[in-house]
């Protein structure tokens, strides 16, 4: 019985993590790099799932996914009480952790590193992928790890939109609740132990990545300094060669 909720939790978490990585990374970079009117309002709105009770988040999702919603009425897609609804609930609840971690990691990148890359002729997109993200990637991965752990442990919103149907929508947290209700404490103890071990491993990995963040920035700084030196040396060598060639004639 334990493997069904475990595998379903794994399935839900993997799909939710992909959504979180794509949208959380994009929005986090956008918030860190763009200044626009209403930015505080947008940031506050995105972080609401962190502070709202899970039942409130679940209620909002019921309005979005349930009867009378555009998804149901316009497209005829019925997601309630399916494992896909559990994916959406997990992603929505964990999404702010990815956004805020990405935003903070990108904002803490030394502007001199990016300026040095621009002096070497890199475009803004090249600066982002060759300098900014390599320096900030440990902070980004830390946020991703926290999002995965939060999504894996989601209970309230998942219960409201996906229910607790054994073999279909019953994830590990929901199975623990049912086991306690039925006084099957040995089964509950085993599932709690598995969940705690996974959460501990993820948090340990996150703390390790955070401790390595300054070292990553120093390494990138040295790399760019070397590239600037090599570029300057090549320009100097080229200019010297041209001057020598002219002097011969």
Provide structural commentary.
The chain is mainly alpha-helical and 249 residues long. The chain folds into two domains: 2-213, MetI-like (MetI-like fold), CATH 1.10.3720; 214-248. It has helices spanning 3-33, 39-51, 54-65, 70-73, 83-107, 111-119, 124-152, 156-162, 172-181, 185-211, 213-248. The longest helix is centred in the last third of the chain and has 36 residues, at 213-248. The radius of gyration is 25 Å and the shape is globular. The N and C termini lie far apart (89 Å).
Descriptive tags:
249 residues, mainly alpha, MetI-like fold, 2 domains, 11 helices, 82% helix
A few lines on this structure:
This protein has about 250 residues and is an all-alpha fold. The protein is about 80% helix and about 0% strand.
What composes the largest sheet? none
Distance linking N and C termini:
89 Å
The proportion of strand residues reads: under 5%
Strand tally is 0
Within CATH, the superfamily of the largest domain carries the name MetI-like
* Percent of residues in helices: over 70%
CATH second-level architecture of the largest domain: Orthogonal Bundle
Write the element-wise H/E pattern from the N-terminal end onward. HHHHHHHHHHH
Question: For the CA atoms, what is the radius of gyration?
Answer: 25 Å
Number of helical regions: 11
CATH top level class name of the largest domain: Mainly Alpha
Shape designation: globular
CATH topology title of the largest domain: MetI-like fold
Q: What is the number of independent domains? A: 2
Topology:
Layout: H1 3-33, H2 39-51, H3 54-65, H4 70-73, H5 83-107, H6 111-119, H7 124-152, H8 156-162, H9 172-181, H10 185-211, H11 213-248
Helix pairs in contact: 1-5, 1-7, 1-9, 2-5, 3-5, 3-8, 5-7, 5-8, 6-7, 6-11, 7-10, 7-11, 9-10
